[in-house]
DNA sequence: TCAATGTTGGC
DNA sequence: CCAACATTG
């Protein structure tokens, strides 16, 4: 009997042990349904990573992968008919849209079961709850309960899968260029081993430094499911430095990803609207209105604040941005340019190769002061002092902003104070941070009063 | 109070 | 034809 293996971006073969157990003797038809809307909203770098991930998936299925463009509720039943399959296997969906879509597919399949096993999380969303059964809304108690809950060991890699062949496939979608980070299962394993060898031990001190390349860079691999967080947790626990503060810190960062998935599970509307009502009457600028030039300058890295601009250019050019920089540029859009956070979240999701709805949008809500555990609204990141503190030699700025290559050291964070600092085309500041910080606080006070 | 695309159902 | 609705990250 044939089983359809309906693969999604964030779950790969080694995460479906139930399928393997059920089909030791059968044939497996691996399928990926391309959603045109998904490609349409992706910027060029994000698209390049998606296409490369599909190419890797095709290789890791011995080129048996069948690609179809269309609506899953039509394409999946069609593939079942074409192959005579008796079941369809998927990962358990965790986003609100995904859950609705899977319900439609299950209905369209009729008697053929849609079997959901596996999750791209160590502990599935919706599992960790308070004693009274309610979900957590604060990270720290969630992380304790999550740690105490524990997670199953990683599933063994698949063995003896027999691929079903002869079902027509489309060509993979094309991309404008190669991805900027290697994607695929081999690349994920390679980077993970390198991180454990070189960067885990210094993770707690170096992780906040965008100039040092000391983060794990595992986000894109988690996004595409080419490594499972249970594998990572087991490897950290078994590592010589597994009991250190640095390792604990890394596990906490993995827990943030699980926490935000859990929040989205319980509050689907929080993807694109304020989770907390407190700032409902906040006055924001319309990004399509007069200050549109400001938003475009932010997107293109021309705000005149070097740390912000380096980060925004890193995003567009490489499809990735250091987490410290993500917080600073988000604060700049929301509190210096007074733009509602979903505008920024959308831009991030279009360009980040690792962009994940739950982590990205709740991270934005955290900065904007509307989310779980949110930073209080009056806490405004200073783009200059953040740069001086976390890029102390200015290397990060010069790496991404060539117009400032001639400014040495930390002076690069305030080129307007350097003779000839703006001589090679770097722009003047589009706003005055101190004035806009005060303006943000004024708006916050009147929103609270309302 | 996301933006962009695709679908539907009125005429 | 096009406005309203649905869908995606």
UniProtKB/TrEMBL annotation:
Source organism superkingdom: Bacteria
Family matches, as PROSITE patterns: PHR_CRY_ALPHA_BETA (PS51645)
Keywords tagged on the record: Chromophore, FAD, Flavoprotein
Entry-linked Pfam families: DNA_photolyase, FAD_binding_7
Photolyase/cryptochrome alpha/beta domain sequence ranges: 1-125
InterPro entries according to UniProt: Crypto/Photolyase_FAD-like_sf, Crypto/Photolyase_N_sf, Cryptochr/Photolyase_FAD-bd, Cryptochrome/DNA_photolyase_1, DNA_photolyase_N, Rossmann-like_a/b/a_fold
Required co-factors: FAD
Keyword Protein biosynthesis: no
Residue ranges the record marks as coiled coil: none
Xref: Gene3D superfamilies: 1.25.40.80, DNA Cyclobutane Dipyrimidine Photolyase, subunit A, domain 3 (1.10.579.10), HUPs (3.40.50.620)
PANTHER family in the record: CRYPTOCHROME, CRYPTOCHROME CIRCADIAN CLOCK 5 ISOFORM X1
Family (UniProt): Belongs to the DNA photolyase family.
Protein name (database record): Deoxyribodipyrimidine photo-lyase
Lineage start: Bacteria, Bacillati, Actinomycetota, Actinomycetes, Micrococcales
């Amino acid at each position: 009997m044939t089983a359809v293996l309906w693969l999604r971006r964030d779950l790969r073969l080694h995460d479906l042990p139930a399928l393997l157990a059920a089909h030791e003797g059968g044939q497996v038809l691996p399928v990926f349904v391309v959603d045109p809307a998904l490609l349409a909203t992706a910027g060029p770098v994000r698209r390049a990573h998606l296409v490369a991930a599909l190419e890797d998936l095709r290789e890791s299925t011995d080129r048996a992968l069948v690609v179809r463009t269309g609506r899953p509720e039509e394409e999946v039943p069609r593939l079942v008919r074409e192959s005579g399959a008796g079941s369809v296997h998927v990962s358990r969906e965790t986003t609100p849209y995904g859950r609705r879509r899977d319900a439609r597919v299950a209905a369209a399949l009729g008697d053929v079961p849609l079997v959901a096993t596996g999750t791209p999380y160590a502990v599935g969303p919706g599992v960790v709850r308070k004693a009274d059964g309610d979900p957590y809304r604060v990270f720290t108690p969630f992380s304790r309960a999550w740690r105490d809950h524990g997670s199953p060991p990683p599933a063994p890699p698949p063995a003896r899968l027999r691929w079903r062949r002869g079902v027509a496939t489309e060509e993979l979608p094309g991309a404008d260029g190669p991805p900027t980070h290697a994607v695929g299962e081999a690349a994920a394993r390679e980077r993970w081993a390198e991180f454990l060898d070189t960067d885990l031990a210094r993770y707690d001190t170096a992780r906040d430094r965008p100039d040092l390349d000391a983060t794990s860079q595992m986000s894109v691999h988690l996004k595409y499911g080419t490594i499972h967080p249970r594998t990572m947790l087991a490897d950290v626990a078994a590592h010589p430095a597994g009991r250190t503060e640095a390792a604990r810190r890394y596990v906490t960062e993995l827990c943030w990803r699980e926490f935000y998935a859990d929040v989205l599970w319980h509050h689907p509307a929080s993807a694109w609207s304020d989770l907390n009502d407190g700032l409902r009457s906040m006055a924001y600028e319309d990004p399509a209105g007069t200050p549109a030039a400001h938003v475009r300058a932010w997107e293109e890295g021309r705000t005149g604040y070097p740390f912000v601009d380096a980060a925004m250019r890193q995003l567009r050019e490489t499809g990735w941005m250091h987490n410290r920089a993500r917080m600073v540029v988000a604060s700049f859009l929301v509190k210096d340019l007074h733009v509602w956070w979903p505008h920024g979240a959308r831009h991030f999701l279009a360009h980040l190769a690792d962009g994940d709805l739950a982590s990205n949008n709740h991270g934005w809500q955290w900065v904007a002061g509307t989310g779980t555990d949110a930073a209080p609204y009056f806490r405004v990141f200073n783009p200059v002092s953040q740069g001086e503190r976390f890029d102390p030699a200015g290397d990060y700025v010069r790496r991404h902003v060539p117009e400032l290559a001639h400014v040495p050291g930390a002076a690069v964070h305030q080129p307007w104070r350097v003779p000839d600092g703006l001589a090679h085309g770097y722009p003047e500041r589009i706003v005055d941070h101190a004035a806009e910080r005060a303006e943000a606080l004024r708006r916050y006070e009147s929103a609270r009063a309302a």
